[in-house]
Design goal:
homodimer, alpha/beta, 271 residues, 5-stranded mixed β-sheet, 8-stranded parallel β-sheet
Chain lengths: 271, 271
């Protein structure tokens, strides 16, 4: 490896191919453009690859003919970890704010992103492929070992009908009559804290649109035993801020109470 | 008041003038443009005004000659509240991300925003007036009763020299050797939770640049008795995500443990 391989290897790429010693991985045109034009990395330079299954690997670039370069896998540098963070169901908002929700939710450990069109949702067109591309880039940059799953949009009734009852749904909803359960208390209840054991229940957050959920929608959710309204504080947060705040609280609670063991069950780190 | 005054009065504007019954308030050109062109509100329509001192007032627009409309103050609708949330000291990042830090910090209750140029800060030009405009708009939209103060940029040594020792500085710094104190524990320690009394100490967060603080900078901070390194979880957060996460945790802890009394010491709400 060249002298600057450590610095080069800060470039992480998510690939779909299997990863193992000596394996050759084809890169997409987008990845090739990023490596060659943006990062100015040529043949021989190092990158890190992960695919969500086989861990993270050091690889080097190799030019093959006139097409995009290949990556030749060298050695495992980090074993795969299970990343089963909370799901985030969210009403799409304006384009930039929706992008932000996806990017921040990925950084903050969400394992599944589920767009939900509610009655007051204004932005009804969602490009799931585009959101997946944003999630992939965020996962590459933040050091995650997996990319969150991005689902096709559902309506709220369809989401409710498909919801696994074992997964708690914490609904951030401002302006309800009674004071909602503070979010940290709701998370603590889920995980039976203090604990070092597995969580009693996996979690999810549901973030409504700017105009909030309607009374009929709140009634629908009230019929789900797994759903609970939670409060994020006294101020009126935008939808994207509420999404980041909810996931930040989850991350912080995991970090504080069970030392990250739940979020990052490792099969052993090599570095 | 016209029939739709309730809907109209969802428009909140921050003004510098004193507010009281019958008072006439001049609006800026920017505010006039927003009211007339964006919100399409004309003479007679209602707005809410606040100035960070006199509470929130219902007012109506009045055309006076050819200039921007005036606002005529009618009645108090919400008493002034003390909003002494944490300070946020942050290394400026790219323009969009810095804007985001300011907007989200305002929504999440920060009372003072202090740009800090550190050794690894790439974005060294900060337009404090522009940041104040962003904070003002965010305060108008999220229902705050005040706009956070935006300071001119300091260097880190200047910040350290000027720091009030009674204010705890929680420094979010990734990748230090020892595991840092989880942020929720650090906040809980500050406020001697569980408690319903005043906090023992006011708080601040310091968020470094993308490249982190240097060893020399960490040494400098280690010399401040009020400074403590805190951890936000296992993943590598972007600077703007770390800022939002830290303030979200503070808000959630206040909400969970002392019912918001600390953040929103009210002199009595009228609605």
């Amino acid at each position: 490896m060249s002298r600057d391989s450590q610095a080069q290897s800060r470039v992480r790429l998510f690939v779909s191919a299997a990863l193992g010693p000596g394996q050759t991985v084809a890169l997409t045109d987008g990845q090739a453009h990023y490596l060659l034009r943006v990062m100015r990395l040529g043949p021989g330079r190092s990158v890190r690859l992960f695919n969500g299954r086989d861990g993270e690997w050091l690889a080097h670039l190799k030019q093959a003919g006139r097409g995009p370069p290949l990556a030749v896998v060298e050695r495992l540098i980090r074993s795969q970890e299970v990343e089963d963070g909370p799901w985030l169901a969210f009403a799409p908002v304006k384009k930039q704010a929706t992008d932000f929700i996806v990017e921040k939710a990925t950084e903050l450990g969400a394992s599944k992103l589920w767009p939900v069109v509610t009655e007051r949702t204004v932005a009804r067109r969602v490009n799931a492929d585009r959101l997946l591309a944003i999630a992939t880039e965020a996962a590459e940059q933040c050091g995650r070992m997996s990319v969150p799953e991005v689902l096709a949009p559902s309506t709220l009734p369809a989401l409710a009908a498909a919801w696994p009852q074992r997964r708690a749904m914490l609904v951030a909803h401002p302006g309800t009559g009674a004071a909602p359960l503070p979010i940290l208390d709701a998370i603590a209840n889920l995980y039976h804290l203090p604990a070092t054991a597995e969580p009693a229940k996996p979690a999810a957050f549901l973030i409504g649109p700017e105009g909030g959920l309607t009374p009929a929608e709140l009634d629908l959710l009230a019929g789900l035993p797994c759903a609970k309204i939670v409060g994020l504080g006294g101020l009126t947060l935008r939808a994207e801020t509420a999404a980041a705040a909810a996931l930040s609280c989850w991350q912080a609670m995991v970090e504080a109470r069970i030392g990250g063991a739940m979020a990052r069950r490792s099969t052993g780190k090599l570095e």
